[in-house]
Design brief:
Pfam families: Aminotran_1_2. Catalyzes the decarboxylative condensation of pimeloyl-[acyl-carrier protein] and L-alanine to produce 8-amino-7-oxononanoate (AON), [acyl-carrier protein], and carbon dioxide. With about 400 residues, this protein is α/β, with parallel strands linked by helices. The protein folds into 2 domains: about 130 residues, Aspartate Aminotransferase, domain 1 (Alpha-Beta Complex); about 230 residues, Aspartate Aminotransferase, domain 2, CATH 3.40.640. The protein contains 15 helices and 14 strands. It has a 7-stranded mixed β-sheet with strand order 4-10-9-8-7-5-6, with helices on both faces. β2 and β3 form a beta hairpin. α13 runs parallel beside α15. The protein is globular, with a radius of gyration of 21 Å. The mean pLDDT is about 95. Bound molecules: 4'-deoxy-4'-aminopyridoxal-5'-phosphate (PMP). The site of 4'-deoxy-4'-aminopyridoxal-5'-phosphate has 13 residues, from α5.
């Protein structure tokens, strides 16, 4: 065994000892409100398939037809991988998002790391909410820009940092924030952030992975919902969640998007999205725009679920959306809670550090529009009884 083998073994032992070991467990059948895992039927409170569209016949048919154009894109975008259908998608997307231009990426992760590292340079400064997604943090690290992490949704702290950075005579300033926070389910106060960005001459980038398709008119997203579309310079979002497909986009001013196309390494040096995915995304945007009923069902289900857990005494943080955390404290307790729920037919993965701050382990429930009353009732009962058993409530 090499010294490196030994070191990996030690590192894994540490992960295990700290209760942080994770496993990828295969699921079978469609990942809908109910799924099958290890032969067991579970109510699924862990997916990002918020509107239940991942198995929608319209999307599947569109992807089948898309596949007829070829199994793969054959090259990166700037070589020969930019299909006519992708260009059409980007036009539709710009008009949907209310921006001059837009560009699609293979995933939200690559969009964030690529855009942030191409926009920001050493000497620039970036203000990032402390609970922003890992891909934002990684993009900032890659850029070499100076990082200020402000306390979660704390605009006094952000303003203080903007003033502080002003003194250094620093060049470009970017504020970046998730819209709907992925582990907390609360919404960033975008209108106030836009005011601050204007006061200090900064730019603003939002990550609308969890707001797109869910919030705003026709699911246009959080900026539309809060009436600040114009105030946001960079709209980033994914097609992997409410849209039920895969891939991501960045939308904004024409010149800035053109700059991204010319400099963004995670876009330039990767094979473009395959035709089947592009077709799926186009069909999904059209469907999402029409399905106000699904958005209403999602809100209704989320409110019932959140209110009942709160009434039972759980701490659901600042959640006002379909992402609903239940704070349990320690990593081990989160795992135990999740295991006990699984025995009762409810799937919710415990979220532990380093995904969330130390001492803030939680169960994170994500609701779906397509859940039935019986699913909700069974899940809520199991969560309350398990919470009582473990002394969480
Ligand atoms: N941003 C946020 C806020 C996310 O929650 C995620 C997905 N977990 C991503 C970006 C990455 O998106 P994708 O899964 O498409 O890579």
């Amino acid at each position: 065994m090499s010294a490196w083998d030994q070191e990996i073994r030690q590192r894994m032992a540490m992960i295990r000892d700290q209760g942080r070991l994770r496993k990828s467990i295969p699921t079978s059948e469609a990942v809908q409100a109910v799924l099958i895992r290890d032969g067991k039927r579970l109510i699924n409170l862990s997916s990002n398939n918020y509107l239940g569209l991942a198995n929608h016949p319209t999307l599947i048919k569109a992807q089948q037809e898309g596949a007829c154009l070829g199994a793969g894109a054959t090259a990166s975008r700037l070589i020969v991988g930019h299909a006519k259908e992708t260009a059409e998608l980007e036009e539709e997307l710009s008009s949907y998002k209310g921006t001059e231009s837009s560009i699609v990426f293979t995933s939200g992760y690559t969009a964030n790391i690529g855009v942030l590292s191409s926009l920001l340079r050493r000497g620039d400064v970036v203000f990032s909410d402390r609970l922003n997604h890992a891909s934002i943090i990684d993009g900032i690290r890659l850029s070499g820009a100076r990082l200020y992490r402000y306390r979660h949704n704390d605009l006094d702290h952000l303003e203080w940092q903007l003033k502080e950075a002003d003194r250094g005579g620093i060049r470009n300033r970017l504020i970046v924030t998730d819209t709907v926070f992925s582990m907390d389910g609360d919404i960033a106060p975008l209108a106030d952030i836009v005011q601050l960005k204007e006061k200090f001459g900064a730019a603003l980038m939002i990550d609308d992975a969890h707001g797109g398709g869910v919030l705003g008119f026709e699911g246009k997203g959080t900026a539309d919902y809060l009436g600040v579309t114009e105030g946001v310079d960079f709209h980033m979002g994914t097609f992997s969640k409410a849209y039920g497909v895969s891939g991501a986009y960045v939308a904004g001013k024409k010149e800035w998007i053109e700059y991204v196309e010319n400099t963004c390494r995670s876009l330039i040096y990767t094979t473009a999205l395959p035709p089947t995915v592009i077709a799926g995304i186009r069909a999904s945007i059209r469907l999402v725009r029409q399905r106000e009923d699904l958005r209403n069902d999602l809100v209704k289900n989320s409110n019932v679920f959140r209110n009942q857990l709160r009434q039972a005494g759980f701490d659901t943080g600042g959640s006002t959306t379909q992402i609903i955390p239940v704070m349990v404290g320690g990593a081990e307790q989160a795992v135990q809670f999740s295991d006990l729920l699984c025995e009762r037919g409810v799937l919710s993965v415990g979220i532990r550090p380093p995904t969330v701050p130390e001492g803030e382990a939680r169960l994170r429930f994500t609701l779906m529009a397509t859940m039935e009353e019986s699913h909700l009732h069974q899940a809520i009962t199991a969560i309350i009884e398990t919470g009582q058993q473990l002394g969480v409530i």
